[in-house]
Amino acid sequence: EVFEAEEKTAEDDEQKREERVEERRRQRIEKEQRGMVQEPMAERLVLSPWAKRWRREIWEALPKASQGPAALTEPTVQMLGRALWHEVSKHAIRTGDKDVLDALVFFRAEDLDADVHTEPWVSIPLPDMLLLVGEGIVGITVEGMFAAEVPKDPVVPSGGSDLATMDSLASASVPLALASAGPALP
């Protein structure tokens, strides 16, 4: 009798496990059919130490939104942009392929005199770099750039539908000078 009980237990355990698996499968199928499947967790970006450092520096250097934007010509913004561009361009030159190096030509000064210490770059894509690296914490208006009051982590867009919401004026911040100017013109 003991031997039969042990065998039945093993068979019963296997049968019970198969029944539980089948029941879970049925429940999952029913939820899918009812549309009650929970959305997967939002994908999060994992920032490198380099990105974390630059995001912190950008947030600390730029005036906060409540203080108003800093003009792109202000020395702090210029120094921040030059330092960031120096690191980005140095990395691109060191690791970039032919296409990257060809693209950098558009930003280089044509005549670099070896005797005179001049800036090797004719143009620096300062707003673009700050907006890309500082995604979620940097804003820009015609008056200049500013940082969010509280830094936010960048998010991964879920799809093309996110781009459609960017066209909305509701998502754009109003420059301080315009906000105090009165009602908008028709």
What does this structure look like?
This protein is mainly alpha-helical. It contains seven helices and two strands, in the order αααααββαα. The chain has helices at residues 2-34, 49-61, 75-95, 98-104, 126-133, 160-165, 176-179; strands at 138-141, 144-147. It has a two-stranded antiparallel ribbon with strand order 1-2.
Summarize the structure.
With 186 residues, the protein is mainly α.
Properties at a glance:
single chain; 186 residues; mainly alpha; 49% helix
Strand content: under 5%
Order of helices and strands: HHHHHEEHH
Distance between the termini: 94 Å
* Inertia-based shape: elongated
Main sheet attributes: strand count, strand direction, barrel closure = 2 strands, antiparallel
Unreliable segments of 5+ consecutive residues: 167-182
The overall pLDDT, averaged over residues, is 77
Structural class: mainly alpha
Number of strands: 2
Spatial arrangement of strands, main beta sheet: 1-2
In which range does the helix fraction lie?
40-55%
How many helical stretches?
7
**Rg over alpha carbons:** 28 Å
